[in-house]
Specification:
Layout lengths: L3 H34 L3 H4 L6 H5 L5 H29 L3 H31 L1
Helix pairs in contact: 1-4, 4-5
Length: 124
Amino acid sequence: MFFLGDYLRESRIMLLHYFSGVGILVSGAIHLVLVFFVGSYEENLSFDGGIFSVIAVYRNFAFAFTLELLLIFVAFHAFNGLRVILIELYQGKKWEMSVNWVLTAIAAFLVIYGTRTVLLARLI
C-alpha cells in the first residue's frame, strides 16, 4: 500500500542526497583551490615523506574544515546510496528499518572517527 508520508519522507531524503552531491563538488573544489593556489608550495605540497608532513596540512583551519565537510558529505552520500540499493533489493518495513538503523550507525561511527582524526592531527 502506498502512503503519502513515506513518499514525502523518501523525497526529502533524496533531496538531501542531491544536496550532498553538490556539497561534495563545492567543498572538493574549495579544498583543491586552497591546496593549489593558497599558501606556498612548501607549506601545502612539498612533503618530505615523513609522517608529520601530511599531518601538518590539518593544522590549517581552512584545510581541516574543508576535509571535515568532505567527510560528512561523502559519508552521507555513500551510505544513503547504499541504503537505496539495499531497499530496492528487498522490500519490507522491517528490512527497511533495519537497513536504516545499521547504515546510520556505521556512517555515524565513521564520521565521528574521522572527526576525531582531524581534531587529533590538529593537536600534534
